[in-house]
Amino acid sequence: MFQGFYTLTSGVLTQNRNLNVISNNMSNATTPGFKADRFVISDFYNEMIIRTGNKNKSDTTRIGGMSLIAGGDETATDYEQGVLSVSTSTLDFSIAGDGFFPIQTDNGTVYTRNGNFSLDDQGYLCLPGVGRVLGENGTIYLGTDRIAVDQNGRIFNEATGAQLGALMVVDFADYAQLDKENNNVFTTNANAIASDAEIEWKTLENSNADPVEQMTRMMASQRALQSSAQILSIYDSLISQVTSKLGPTG
């Protein structure tokens, strides 16, 4: 009976972690370029019976087991592209296909799908709160938001026609090497490769976190957590009764 505490307690802790992931997805349902996460739950197997053999003990074979503890295997990110929506800002961009915008920060280069850019106080194209956007020839100085952009990401001064810079999109062979950080960006030590994705001007990629799906998952997780908590209370009551009845009799 006491083994049930392992299952129930691990269930409560695991569902709490799952709810944290879901809550973060829901809070970023309107964040441009956001990629939803999914908390992957796994089992911790506690072997109950092991056959070791009569004489030869070198080749042990598991013949039984019981799953007692639920745990978190990983938090997996869904990189599926979100819907592209039209924007009125000349500094909004999205990527049609696979890839990321590289952003220069004080701690190195980070990568994002969020093309909701702005101009910093010196006139450079930037992702607010993160850093300056890196183009084909380094950071991109515009000095104005009166620009025109072609599908290759080349940026021109609307008045003079002069090219001010060119956006760059990079990709990675294995997204498992990306680490998700705050501010909707990713970091990695892997080498970036060129991407042939098109850059869409005056559009933004919507978050791929579906609020309805996230709400459904949240309700299921909350029910699982509440059930575990209620049964834990019953266990505690049963153990109190057993302890009182089996205690010293004199």
Produce a short descriptive summary:
24% of the residues lie in helices and 36% in strands.
Please, could you describe this protein's structure?
The structure is a single chain. With 250 residues, this protein is of the alpha+beta class. It is 24% helix and 36% strand. It contains two helices and 19 strands. It has helices at residues 4-27, 211-245, and strands at 37-51, 61-77, 84-86, 93-96, 101-105, 108-112, 118-119, 125-127, 131-135, 138-139, 147-149, 154-157, 163-166, 170-171, 179-181, 185-187, 193-194, 198-201, 203-205. Strands 5, 6, 7, 8, 9 and 10 form a six-stranded antiparallel beta sheet that branches. The chain has a three-stranded antiparallel beta sheet with strand order 11-12-13, with no helix packed on it. Strand 9 and strand 10 form a beta hairpin. Helix 1 (4-27) runs antiparallel to helix 2. The chain is elongated. 25% of the residues are buried. Mean pLDDT is 86; it is low at 46-54.
Order of helices and strands: HEEEEEEEEEEEEEEEEEEEH
| Beta fraction | 35-45%
Number of helices: 2
Distance between the termini: 26 Å
